[in-house]
Amino acid sequence: MPGARKRVAESGPLTVTISFAGYNRVWAAWIGDRLERRGLTVSYQRWDPQEGTPLADSLRALALAPGPVLVILSTWYFQLGPRTQAEWNSALTEVVAADPGRFAGVSVTNDALPPATAVFAAADLTTVGEQEAERRVLARLGLPVDPLPADQAARGGPRFPNDPSDVWGGVPRRNTRFTGREPLLNDIYHTLRNAEDSARVVTLHGMSGVGKTQLAAEYVYRFGAEYDVVWWAAADKRAVCRQRLAQLAPELGLSTGVDYGERLRATRIALRRGDPYARWLIVFDGADDPEAIWDLVPEGPGDVLITARNPEWAQHNSLLMEVPAYDRDESVSFVLRRAPRLSAREADRLAEALEDLPLLLDQTAGWLNDSDMSVDEYIALLEQEGIDEDVVRVSRDFPTSFPTSWSILLNRLRETVPEAVTLLRLCAFFAPGAIPVRLVRDLPAQELPESLRGLVTNSVSWAAAINKLRQYAVVRAAGVGDREIHETMPEAGGAVPGDTLYMHRLVHQIIRQDMPADDHDELIEVVRRALAAADPGQPTDSRMWPEYAEIAPHLRWADVLQTTSPAMHVLVLNCLQYMLHSGEYQAGLTLGSRAMKAWKEQLGDTHPRIWDLTHHYANLLRAVGDYAHTEALERTAVDHLREAHGAKDLTHLRAAGGLAADLRGLGRYDEAYTISRWVLDAYRELLGDQDARTLNAQNNVAVSLRLLGRYPDALDLDLRTLAERRRLLRPRHRWSLFSEIHVSTDQRLLGRYSEAESIQGQSVRVHRSVLGADNPQTLNAEHNLALTLYRIGRRREAAELFTGVLERSERVLGEGDPDTLRFAAGQSCFAREHGDIDQAREISERVVEGYTLLLGPDHPFPTGARSNQALIMRAVGEREQAYELAEQALAGMRAAVGDDHPWTLGCAVNASEMRSLRGDTESAAALNADTAARAAQSLGRTHPLTLSARVATAADLRTLGKRLEADKTEAEALDDLAATLGAQHPHTLAARSRTRPYWDFEPQIV
User: Fold this and answer.
1) Using 50, 70 and 90 to split pLDDT, how confident is the model at 789?
2) Is 470 exposed, middle or buried (0-12, 13-18, 19+ CB in 10 A)?
3) Rounded CA gap, 582 and 551, in Å?
4) pLDDT at site 694
């Protein structure tokens, strides 16, 4: 027996060896620290027996360690190897039982261990506090258990494994009635431990009300000591989830600004690097839409736990674990804890009626505990409601008894606390999930109906109503935004919690169905006014986007499209602008389409609000490349507004500017320029040069000039726009930043690479800070920087940007988005020259196909993409296909934009090479000579494209035997290259080595 063994202090050894599995290092560190405080030397031995070595031999080797060996017993200790229980029982009997004085044990697991582990006489540390755990360790080793002197006891050391983590936030308070689920909890733990480093994500999925959130919370409390960081994030709304993750940055000690986009980026980088903490656990609660938040799931050395109804998380590198309903024994135990007045038989009857669904058991048992109704009467009431099969039929997929139970509960609330029912009904006009009821409380009292005024303005009544709802588990508090709403309520006075409540989707549905008509009309109007009052009124200001992100999900539930209120119209239009500028295109398109249908029915086809809506809806359609649709919308608007109000009407000018943008998207650049130029002149006449609308029109003229290949003119206009936007708006305004992209693009297209890199490099940093890393405009800024670095020759930096931008764009915008296709075109060109030719080919084929589907085969973009693809075919040796593609691209580009456009000249450079490779050198030389002359005329003698044509001409002349003329042409081109780009620039070096030049087509922003 342990008590009969010699005490360590009596026998003299001053060293203890701790043997532990790597997963229990935290226990080893804590135990070692406690022993060292008492003057012992501790040797740590991580247990990791080699496969193939007999287990008994590994234990004998462990026995060679100095002093007694304290084994930390856990499931992991016996899984390493791996070995069977029979092997362990045999080895423990052979080695440990034969020399019991050399081994001692402590148990840190509730799992079943091999029976022979009894030889360790292990002290159980799983359910005790720090002081008792220390006493048990000391007693097991035969050491004195007297308290340490105060100075030694107060010394800092490793955290007791059962103590909270260093960073702990948002975790719901522990459910003291949590019941059962032991195998499932252990399965979660072992699944995370066994997962590959790249896939340590587990999703708990199952039907609503099955207890996924409670299970995740219990896991956190049971295993949280193994993590230095535990962070809980509500994931039912993307914006709220992003904000919650951003709030982790200061808790990690990261130095960031106040912008939540910057904080989110810093958080994700820190988690990925495992710095300052490598052992972290992030919980995403209620992530029912994987597509909305999967890109927020961090990578790195830590663990991620997700709760969701949706099993499609398996498609996002997550391991799935289904959460079933309770076992009957678990249901009975839980009901008895929730409703002590019930008997076991009644609990069993209730569990049977509710099919063991934890949420239903919790809510109905809670109500029954406060009522006089018996379980049999309750079940009989359920049966009475069973006239409608759809209402009372119990189903695992949707518990139809659930709304019935809620009808009973609502009746009870009406009788006891009618204010709580009013609050519930108010919540039903917000979106389910997190409900910002503070927006209602922020309304002036005179704008509230009498039925709500006393509740909303009286803190005591408000707290009482929320308390009653929480007693019945109808709602719970939720932390949203900058406020953390805790589960405890104040007894009196002070700030009243409940600024944000959480309501389950099914409860929300039931409350709406139960709504009397009078309450419906009155309460929905209150929520509409609250949403309108919360509108910051600045949808283009990125600092306001978190507020719009909170408002936007509730528009549908407040039915804001079914009102003619001007304030509601403004709110909808502002939300559409926010969705455009923040990159939430699909949400904006859905809202815009619904608004167009509803408003036309209410207002008619030609009401002024229809043209406002058309403008914003068309902007969203244009953002996803639906130019044909937007052209039809804008032409209708232009024709009507010109006829109704005249050509110089501001709404007509706005529509005309939109039409020009549509024409740019369709590749009709001359028409677009003509309209854009006229719109700019009109704005200058009506508003002057310093109005934001004039500057937007000026920006659009420059875009048209760039697409026409008139790069110097575009740069002159973009420089003016940038300076005026910085002065009129502010340097960090998104439009000022967009002008920086345009200026840098113009400079790059003119071959002024260093200037382009200087402005774009700084602009990228500001974009990330102001708009966030995943905003489409930020992606455009980074892509332009990648192209510039590529042209300069800084390939490593360019490679990282190309890859990162494309990955994020595919994730955020989708593979078929116009921006994504542009980014993919750049990535393909880079990969062709400096990466993986197979990857380049695969991406290039996607680009050609994507542009063809989006814009048609004759548009300049798919045409130019075919020229890029010809270079890939040349590189892989498919010369004939390369020739055909290059000739198609040249002919198509001539037809699309004319003979002298830089894109046509670039296609000609590539086509001349393919002709030369086929032996048609005379044709290649003639084409190059013509190209060089045209490029010199339109771009200048020293433009990179002109120089490429001149170098290619020299190569063709040499092939034709015209050596003197070739040498002269080459020497002049090399001198101009060195003077323009530098003697060591990659283009100059390639030309000196007589590597034939090529041209990459770069789709431009339209």
Assistant:
1) very high
2) middle
3) 14
4) 96
Is the C-alpha dihedral spanning 694, 696, 699, 705 positive or negative? negative
Which H, E and C letters describe 456-499, residue by residue? HHCHHHHHHHHHHHHHCCCEEECCECCECCCCCCCCCCCCCCCC
State the Cα–Cα distance between residues 76 and 82, nearest whole angstrom.
Answer: 10
Instruction: Quote the CA–CA distance of 182 and 173 in Å, as a whole number.
Output: 19
Instruction: Output the six-digit token pair for 927.
Output: 């084409």
In sequence order, what are the residues at sequence separation of 6 or more whose Cβ sits closer than 8 angstroms to the Cβ of residue 390?
400
DSSP string for 520-587: HHHHHHHHHHHHHHH--S-TT-GGGHHHHHHHGGGTTTTTGGG---HHHHHHHHHHHHHHHHHT-HHH
Q: For residue 993, which phi and psi values (nearest 5 degrees)?
A: -85, 5
Place of tokens 């048990």: 136
In angstroms, the CA 83 to CA 93 distance is: 15
Query: CA neighbours within 13 Å on the CB side: how many for 553?
Result: 18
- The helix/strand/coil state of 423 is helix
Q: In Å, how far are 209, 294, 790 from 866, measured between CA atoms?
A: 54, 34, 21
The helix/strand/coil state of 322 is strand
Whether residue 209 contacts residue 358, with contact meaning beta carbons closer than 8 Å, is answered with: yes
CB 95 within 8 A of CB 62: no
pLDDT above 90: percentage of residues in the chain: 52
Burial of 87 (0-12, 13-18, 19+ CB in 10 A): middle
pTM of the model as a whole: 0.65
Could you give phi then psi for residue 644, rounded to 5 degrees?
-80, -35
Residue with tokens 């009155």: 522
Residue for token pair 């695992």 = 396
For the ranges 503-512, 878-887, 960-969, 987-996, the one whose mean pLDDT is highest: 878-887
Report the distance separating Cα 311 and Cα 210, nearest Å: 14
Rounded to whole angstroms, the Cα distance separating 33 from 41 reads 10
CA angle 315, 316, 319 (to 5 degrees): 85
Contacts of 733 (CB under 8 A, 6+ apart): 540, 541, 725
Give ∠ CA 420-423-424 in degrees, rounded to 5: 85
Q: Mean pLDDT throughout 5-15?
A: 49
Supply the DSSP string of 330-342, one letter for each residue.
HHHHHHHHH-TTS
Segment 259-281 mean pLDDT = 90
Residues comprising the chain, all counted: 1006
Other Cβ atoms closer than 10 A to 132: 12
Q: Say if CB 901 and CB 893 are below 8 A apart.
A: yes
Torsion of CA 687, 688, 689, 690, to 10 degrees: -70
74 SS3 class: coil
CB 876 within 8 A of CB 841: yes
Give how far the C-alpha of residue 654 lies from the chain's centroid of Cα atoms, to the nearest Å.
34
- Rounded to the nearest 5 percent, the helix, strand and coil shares of the chain are 65, 5, 30
Q: Are 501 and 409 in contact (CB under 8 A)?
A: no
- Collapsed DSSP state (helix, strand, coil) of residue 967: helix
Q: How far apart are CA 677 and CA 702, in angstroms?
A: 9
Closest CA to 589 of 537, 535, 630: 630
CA 818/CA 824 separation, integer angstroms:
10
- CA–CA gap between residue 469 and residue 461 (Å, rounded): 12
| Angle between the N-to-C axes of helices 650-665 and 669-687, in degrees from 0 to 180, rounded to the nearest 10 | 160
Running DSSP on this structure, what letter comes out for residue 947?
H
Please spell the DSSP secondary structure of 97-120, one letter per residue.
Answer: TT-GGGEEEEE---S---GGGGGG
Q: Beta strands 501-503 and 475-477: pairing type?
A: antiparallel
Give the count of alpha carbons within 13 A of 624, CB side only. 21
Q: How far is CA 991 from CA 610, 944, 948, in A?
A: 58, 12, 9
SS3 of 532, please? helix
CA angle 230, 233, 235 (to 5 degrees): 145
